[in-house]
Design a protein that fits this description.
Layout (H helix, E strand, L loop, with lengths): L9 E9 L5 H9 L18 E7 L2 E7 L10 H19 L5 E7 L8 H13 L7 E6 L1 H6 L3 H13 L5 H4 L4 E4 L4 H11 L8 H8 L8 H33 L3 H76 L2 H11 L5 H20 L16 H25 L8 H17 L6 H10 L6 E2 L11 E4 L4 E4 L7
Parallel strand pairs: 1-3, 1-4, 4-5, 5-6
Antiparallel strand pairs: 2-3, 7-8, 8-9
Helix pairs in contact: 1-7, 2-8, 2-10, 3-9, 9-10, 10-13, 11-13, 12-13, 14-15
Length: 490
């Protein structure tokens, strides 16, 4: 939830970062005057979650954001980076929260100047990016302790090293970052805050990458830096474990049980560190694997949807073709003629198909008795025997197609599922035959025959009623053969 703005003031968000024990919580408690801020002692972590602390200062609504230490004593660097990065990305995405600055704390008495401290600085730099460095203040702590211990000169020397050494702050100072000293007083803390209040809020590089570019953490600059270090540690642990195992083998040969026991403890400790390092890498890669899995699932869903649409379109097309073929039969044949054709050839099909044919005929006849007859249109029917009988014929054929299939229908002399061209040839043949025999009532057929002219008189047609698999026709004038491709059925 976005913090509520103070009327008449400006909202300022400042993150406080640094390693464990650098004084982050102490600084926030001192600056805000809020005693609820938990302050740790020594190098043990006291801040385990990201906590924003709000207070009013000179007309501004200030929020100091306490963060876990990068070298947290209870969690690895990867887990801490993941928590900070996700919090920053979430606030930027949902509330458009941008930081006015970052205060990076560093304790002068911290001897961890190499190793984890350098890794954390490198990760911090990649988290911020180059341009936002102008909103960063590197703040040293421990000046009061140094004065009491009469070690002020050492503290000054340490500060100078941090500012001038290319391994530490120097590259970031050249890009606009500044330094400050926290003198353990509220005035000192607020002076540092006041330097950041007027700064234009910035979008950190980690926010831009994770929100604007929608990258996974491991693919960001900070994530890649951590992953690189994890790989180096993996190689190092692997080599050290191999060396210890060789030394353990030598101790066994020398029968040095004490040395072997000590080496075994070392090996166990290294294996534990290696397991933690591997878990850190798995955590870093978790989001990438999830993203890849989501992408694969989305592509699979898309493929299934396309296949479903394709199948649906094919089924619709098949249904339309079947209805068209059934309508042609209905327009051309009476219901009782279709029934007679079926019963004359029903011995050609399987026993269960015979039962299905008779059941379908009985069902249509029963429906006809309970359905009011539609008035016949004047002049309608042609050779079809009236609208009611035509409707019965169509219902019978469409009811049989999904029940017995196109093969069984073709076997009884009703090739409902044949290729439309083959069906067209058959219809034309019947119309020509009817015209040659002088039959009446086939006006449509006569018209079609006339359209073909005398060509139809010279065509020899196969006996499709006796053999539905015949597929060759010959034009006797041109001696040209052509094949009529049949539909194999569903």
């Amino acid at each position: 939830m976005a913090p509520e703005a103070v009327h008449g003031g400006e909202m300022v968000f400042i993150a406080v970062m640094g390693v464990t024990g650098a004084g982050k919580s102490t600084f926030i408690q001192t600056a805000s005057g809020d005693s609820r801020v938990t302050v740790g002692h020594g190098n043990k972590s006291c801040t385990t979650d990201i906590v924003p602390w709000r207070f009013k200062h000179e007309g501004h609504d200030i929020t100091l954001i306490d963060t876990p230490g990068f070298n947290d004593t209870t969690r690895g660097e990867t887990e801490v980076l993941k928590e900070i990065a996700e919090w920053l990305a979430l606030k930027y995405k949902n509330d458009n929260t941008r930081l006015s600055g970052i205060i990076y704390m560093h304790a002068l008495d911290d001897r961890r100047m190499y190793g984890s401290t350098l890794r954390n600085l490198k990760m911090f730099r990649q988290l911020c990016g180059e341009e936002p460095m102008r909103n960063v203040i590197f703040t040293t702590t421990g000046w009061g302790t140094a004065r009491k211990a009469e070690q002020l000169s050492k503290a000054l020397e340490k500060e100078s090293e941090l500012c001038t050494d290319g391994l530490f702050w120097e590259p970031m100072l050249r890009r606009g970052a500044q330094t400050a000293r926290f003198e353990d007083s509220r005035e000192s803390a607020l002076r540092i805050v006041d330097r950041l209040v007027p700064r234009p809020p910035v979008v950190l590089q980690i926010q831009h990458e994770m929100v604007d570019e929608q990258k996974n953490l491991i693919d960001t600059a900070a994530g890649a830096t951590v992953n690189e270090e994890i790989k180096k540690l993996e190689a190092r642990y692997k080599d050290e474990i191999a060396k210890v195992q060789q030394e353990m083998q030598a101790a066994l040969v020398d029968k040095d049980n004490e040395l072997h026991s000590a080496l075994e403890e070392t090996k166990n400790r290294l294996e534990h560190l290696r397991e933690e390092n591997q878990r850190a890498q798995e955590l870093l890669q978790y989001e990438r694997r999830n993203a890849e899995r989501r992408h694969d699932n989305a592509m699979q869903d898309l493929r299934m949807a396309l296949e479903s649409q394709k199948l649906s379109a094919q089924q619709k097309e098949d249904q339309m073709r079947a209805e068209a073929a059934a309508q042609r039969y209905a327009d051309r044949m009476r219901f009782d003629e279709v029934v007679a054709t079926i019963r004359a050839n029903v011995e050609k099909v399987r026993h269960e198909d015979r039962i299905a044919f008779e059941a379908a005929i009985a069902r249509v006849e029963a429906e006809t008795h309970h359905r009011p007859q539609k008035p016949q249109k004047p002049g309608g029917g042609g050779g079809g025997g009236g609208g009611g009988k035509s409707d019965r014929t169509k219902r019978l054929l469409l009811g049989l197609l999904p029940t017995v299939g196109s093969v069984a229908l073709a076997a009884v002399g009703l090739p409902l599922g044949l290729n439309p061209f083959s069906e067209f040839i058959k219809v034309i043949r019947e119309e020509f035959d009817s015209d040659a025999n002088g039959d009446d009532g086939a006006g449509a057929g006569a018209g079609a025959g006339a359209a073909w002219g005398d060509q139809g008189q010279n065509m020899a047609y196969p006996d499709t009623s006796a053999n539905t698999s015949a597929n060759t026709n010959t034009n006797t004038d041109t001696c040209t053969e052509y094949e009529v491709e049949e539909y194999d059925g569903p």
